[in-house]
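Risk register update: the risk of archive-format incompatibility is retired. Evidence:
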Amino acid sequence: MNTMKDLSEKIVKRIEDIAQPVKIMHVCGSHEHTIMQYGLRSLLPKEVEVVAGPGCPVCCVPAREVEECLQLARQGVTIATFGDMLRVPGGTGSLADAKAEGADVRIVYGVNNAVELAQNIDNEVVFMAAGFETTAPTTAAELVSNPPENFSVLSCHRLIPPALEFLIKSGEVNLNALIEPGHVSTIIGTKPYDIFSEKYGIPQVVTGFNPMDVLIAVYLILKQLDEGKAKVQNEYKRAVREEGNIKAQELLEDVFYITTKEWRGFPPIPNSVMDIKDEFSDYNAREKFDIEVGTIPEVVTGCICGAILRGVARPEDCKLFRKECNPTNPIGACMVSKEGTCNIAHRYGSF
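Archived output:
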């Protein structure tokens, strides 16, 4: 324990020695969890700011896509999804509300459980597939394995690099550096991030999830800035290869096409969402069922979940935080999931 403490103090000292004003964005709920749980922001010099971006896959699903599932549930379709999705708000409520009204909504731990469910009931089963590049290959793997005819997928899978480019180009966050997500990077590798350093001069570090990983990432970013460099460094070599997971990438390419859609809190982001190719249309819930969703209004006035996901606000800036909005009564999507910035801040932030 003392050895880890001594090492962390040495890294913090190195950070202090080369600190300069910088805004570093990470895009991973697990990174935010580590940062808050271990109080890492309090160890950093004031000029070194680490902000959370759209790193929670459940939080990023827009109200429109939740509403698609609500329509299906109310039509009598069995909806299978992750537990974190149950209370994410749509336009006319949440899947938890639909379940309370009598709809058949089941919690599963993965797409394989949804397939097993379809094999054991006569009803149509739709798996609401939320997640980034990390979980999308599991969805693809099931679709190429001839699932039962009463099974289909409503794809809400999203790609991290296009969202990062959108944030960089918008200038709203005014970010100077990026801590890239370890889990996503195990699939896509490090190459997709190169453009952000080459084109925009942004230092980047792919890192793991323990406190030392995050502190080392901050130090490596500051070292790049101090030396006038901008490149992608892989601190997480124990899990991430430059080329990523080729087999998983091939599965994604076989099953999904890339399209432009909105994220929660974002306008449509070009080439940022994975939807199912025509070859697998029999398993595409949007093709299989008649789903018509119009304009979705803001769910709750006063919720700033969108700004939090874009990294321009913190949970403490929201007038609903820890009042009307809390884990027992989540009003915004960022309070629902344990990877959500508001949920994490509620658990680990100071009162």
